[in-house]
Amino acid sequence: MFVFGQECKVTPCEPGVERKVLSWSEEMMMCEITFQEGAVGNTHAHPHLQITYIADGEFEFTIGEETKLVKKGDSVYMPSGVSHGVKCLKAGVLVDVFNPKRDEFLA
């Protein structure tokens, strides 16, 4: 029922990007993703629905063919199967919520 961030495993992703899986159930998962300035979340697609909250920093998100600048306090939605990627313009933290959970993040 309670997950303490300081106890979560940190997983390196792309260079300058780290992920913590915070909480999950079969239906959803929440992760904290930390980016160094200039780091890139490579373009990819997955069957999960995803909503991302920008907790800190500035990012350039591309979803499908559309690219927008997002900052602390903004959020974005990635539909199932749609290509998306991100570039960190100012070091920051994203909070990703997936439906359903990402089993590969738990392996």
Entry summary:
This protein is mostly beta strands and 107 residues long. It contains no helices and 8 strands.
Write a structural description.
The protein is mainly β and 107 residues long. It has a single domain (11-99), classed as Jelly Rolls, CATH 2.60.120.10. Helix content is 0%, strand content 60%. It has strands at 10-12, 17-24, 29-35, 40-44, 49-63, 66-71, 75-78, 84-99. Strands 1, 2, 3, 4, 5, 6, 7 and 8 form an eight-stranded antiparallel β-sheet that branches. Strand 2 and strand 3 (29-35) form a beta hairpin. The chain is globular, with a radius of gyration of 13 Å.
Write out key terms for the chains shown.
single chain; 107 residues; mainly beta; Jelly Rolls; eight-stranded antiparallel beta sheet; 8 strands
The H-level CATH homologous superfamily, spelled out, is Jelly Rolls
Q: Considering DSSP H and I runs of 4 or more, what fraction of the residues is helical?
A: under 10%
CATH architecture: Sandwich
Number of strands: 8
Average residue pLDDT = 97
Q: Per DSSP, what share of the residues sits in E-state strands of 2 or more residues?
A: over 45%
Q: What shape does the CA trace take?
A: globular
* Rg of Cα set: 13 Å
Low-pLDDT runs of 5+ residues are: none
The CATH class name reads Mainly Beta
Which series of helices and strands comes N to C? Answer: EEEEEEEE
In terms of structural class, how would the helical and strand content be classed? mainly beta
Q: Report the major sheet.
A: 8 strands, antiparallel
Through-space gap between termini:
21 Å
The number of helical runs is: 0
CATH topology: Jelly Rolls
Total number of domains: 1
